[in-house]
Amino acid sequence: MKAFVVDKYKKKGALRLTNMPEPELRDNDVLVRVRATGVNLLDSKVRDGEFKLILPYRPPFVLGHDVAGSVVRVGSKVRRFKTGDEVYARPRDHRVGTFAEFIAMNEADVALKPKNLNMEEAASIPLVGLTAWQALVEMGKVKPGQKVFIQAGSGGVGTFAIQLAKHLGAEVATTTSEKNVELVKSLGADLVIDYKTQDFEKALSGYDLVLNSQDTKMLEKSLRVLKPGGRLVSISGPPDPEFAKDLRLNLFLKFVIRLLSRGVRKRAKSLGIGYSFLFMRAQGEHLTEITSLIESGVIRPVVDRIFPFEKTGDALAYVETGRAKGKVVITVGE
Questions:
Q1: Which CATH topology does 128-277 take?
Q2: pTM
Q3: For the chain, which residues make up each domain, given as ranges?
Q4: What CATH class does 2-124+302-331 carry?
Q5: Which segments of the chain have a pLDDT < 50?
Q6: Cα dihedral sign for 37, 103, 52, 136?
Q7: Which of 12, 162, 279, 318 could disulfide-link to 187, CB 3.0 to 4.6 Å?
Q8: What separation in angstroms does the CA of 118 have from each of 14, 83, 258, 289, 325?
């Protein structure tokens, strides 16, 4: 099969198109013919080596964390899917590789594709949808009437999280540039802050939840817009001890992570605020919940650009500019 691989960890290193063996199908796996794949900043961070201590991949490896496609074969113990099913997924860590013609995934990571989406639209959903779901529903436990601040509302996670937060009954604030104000309002944002001309810390107060996706400076400011008893969920770090425990990291890495997050955890505690780091995990059951929201019209995908498979490197470079509205998607084949 054709696939784009990372030959070595390198910042902004080029991906190489090559022929790779078809993935091995395990007993609990479905083999999927990839029709479309989403592109995420996580892909560039993995290629750059930012996660190699906690997510070691041995080069050459195939990149890619979002997929929509058709099941072509199932393992002997698979019960939920059959050949011909149209599915979508974010494959679990250590088994990623959607920048390819085929991928084998554990059936627990997979869900049936929303019937009202095409393959490109469906491929834009899994990583950002699961991130928003786990941040707002699982960790944040957002309830009607609560105030939620979602940073970078026009980005991949932001466009999904705004819609989900509104569905949960929250009052939603977000940041974006002036040109994207109408987009985020159309998704349900109640209060929009132009980050180029306004300081969100001065405009917001008494919030129940912040979804942080920006740098350390923005994280510090975000702590100060929360009310006592509020929660900050960060998808951009620093990782916390609970994350290290979940990944069963060794004692040295647990110590390093505890050290990295000590400052923010201490400041959050002094303000009476909960701090959690979210590193999204694959979960087919959550995707099934998301499918029902999409099919009922509660949430719609936001796709900025679609690239052909041979332009995968260009798609990744475009995502790295930070200018994409919603998601960037690659069409892999007919």
A1: Rossmann fold (3.40.50)
A2: 0.96
A3: 2-124+302-331, 128-277
A4: alpha beta
A5: none
A6: positive
A7: 162
A8: 29, 19, 43, 18, 19
